[in-house]
Amino acid sequence: xxxxxxxxxxxxxxxxxxxxxxxxxxxxxxxxxxxxxxxxxxxxxxxxxxxxxxxxxxxxxxxxxxxxxxxxxxxxxxxxxxxxxxxxxxxxxxxxxxxxxxxxxxxxxxxxxxxxxxxxxxxxxxxxxxxxxxxxxxxxxxxxxxxxxxxxxxxxxxxxxxxxxxxxxxxxxxxxxxxxxxxxxxxxxxxxxxxxxxxxxxxxxxxxxxxxxxxxxxxxxxxxxxxxxxxxxxxxxxxxxxxxxxxxxxxxxxxxxxxxxxxxxxxxxxxxxxxxxxxxxxxxxxxxxxxxxx
Amino acid sequence: xxxxxxxxxxxxxxxxxxxxxxxxxxxxxxxxxxxxxxxxxxxxxxxxxxxxxxxxxxxxxxxxxxxxxxxxxxxxxxxxxxxxxxxxxxxxxxxxxxxxxxxxxxxxxxxxxxxxxxxxxxxxxxxxxxxxxxxxxxxxxxxxxxxxxxxxxxxxxxxxxxxxxxxxxxxxxxxxxxxxxxxxxxxxxxxxxxxxxxxxxxxxxxxxxxxxxxxxxxxxxxxxxxxxxxxxxxxxxxxxxxxxxxxxxxxxxxxxxxxxxxxxxxxxxxxxxxxxxxxxxxxxxxxxxxxxxx
Lengths: 294, 294
Description:
Two copies of one chain form a homodimer.
Chain A (H helix, E strand, L loop, with lengths): L5 H12 L3 E5 L17 H20 L5 E4 L1 H5 L2 H17 L3 E8 L3 H11 L2 E4 L2 E4 L5 E4 L5 H14 L2 E7 L5 H4 L9 H11 L11 E7 L7 H7 L3 E5 L23 E5 L1 H4 L4 H15 L3
Helix pairs in contact in A: 2-4, 5-6
């Protein structure tokens, strides 16, 4: 039996919770309280335990008004093996809170290595001693720099697992203009990437009309949104950069397609750093739901 | 005191060993013998132990005729926390064999996340309980898709650690043509990337005249090599795709600059899969050394 497509699972959750908020988890151990880790264990273990507890707490507080959680993988990797264990624990906490989990690692590599990333993210790895489960996340971010054959194993792995893939199309950082906005030759490179994503939409299509072949589109350049929606009518947009990076949720109207689940807006620092994370997430949720015509 | 630059450490090793061979480590646990893991522990732990032992054995056999080892991170990540521990152990084994270690993860992200990757790869992460050391590798591969500000924290982290950074410029897979060969608008995108790399060369310059701001250039399209060398006269080229992917070492002459350390050729399956890995590495070493005019 095929697993239920990511797009359908997300779309149902968006309608149920009337929310398009994705909780970004970018834990910085240097900002945690010294008292937040139990005594004992190595420094890495203590830091990883504190990071896992911090993420779990954020998920418990802000999770109920969100639909997704997006752990940023580097923030866990930098703590070594205990950091990877904290990532597993954070994925589990998000799932318990009913959130879809988007692993944000922006992976991309030649096909044989991309297949290994697919196992790490969506599937499992066969070994002579049995299968080793990967993160088993609901979706992941991916870099398309190496072209379509590099995305293929990730799409394939996502399809088998009923997962989604958010391909970087126009990111939120200033330097994105260096390459993604280059005319290549007749239209910006990001339009080429959008066409690549649209061409893969059928592969992760849900019954709701949305595709789990999604796109990462920064909130910092809202003038591109309507063109990108036109080029990728079915794709779910994962939109970072509202809040701390200067983008404004109010400008995101043109990002929406017909379905309220067509956009997820990620917020990290603006939720985690707020005095009341649940209130900050709630406010963003209401603003977006109004935009989506909910 | 500043650490000795990567370019100088590598250049000295290349001259000492008369070798430009980089041992690619892409361990696939499904190909290992069932007897290669000790009994006990979880499936992931057994598989990770077997992977670490396999890599250590390859390093011991082929390492003496190589100058670098390049673990492919996905192959370790897919085994979870024990996989990350096996990566640490593989990095240590390569260092004991006198090799420089290149972490092949093709990371690239917005600046705040790129800084976290720099900590994971080259530096350490401050926490209230002390610093957590990262992989502390000698170099890493990086994706430039997000533009110059996304590379900046990786270059900065590499500079502080005396490490190198190999930026993807023209990869070895077929799909590389989809984007990297696009005219953007007057020259292929990869030439833009080459200019970006050349512009960062001073930041990791060694006294030997080579820069640790390197480039990943696939062996599968040798017609681009002389132009890329012209655009990046000081950069060390990391060249995958000779051997199993169809590129030929004999075609790599135009990749070389003035210094024999200006090119590293990675070989994974063609060494690991050979009946005698040391002999396979030796053969490649001799072929390259002759090409470099050694």
